[in-house]
What does this fold into?
Amino acid sequence: MRTIVKLTALVMLLVVTGCSGALPVSVINMVSATQPAPHGDAVRGETIFKHGINDAPACVGCHALVKGGFSLGPVMKGISERAGTRVEGMSAEAYIRQSILEPKAFIVSGFRPIMYPDYAKHLSEQDILDLIAYLSTL
It folds into this structure.
């Protein structure tokens, strides 16, 4: 019921402002507060990481989960903690997201820029959230 009231208020404001889009920030925040924050499914993320999805290769083909074996890319154990310190002002989640979607944006020292470049074409927003949720558990 509250959502209907908020949406009605938003429509009334749009009519009053002539649909100019000049809404007060408080109104924008009120409406966006009704939207639940998206979240990832770590179990599904693990499946994507290990098996790939939508013709995209599995991440585990290049990224080992723990130290000790051969890995073309950085080991994933502890990625959430490391990712949160890589770029000042950038959260671990934002860093991981950008690393998946734009693999050449950040190249970890000691590794070559050879990550599969087309995950952005194959992964949905939910796929990315699921991968981030899984990686955050490592």
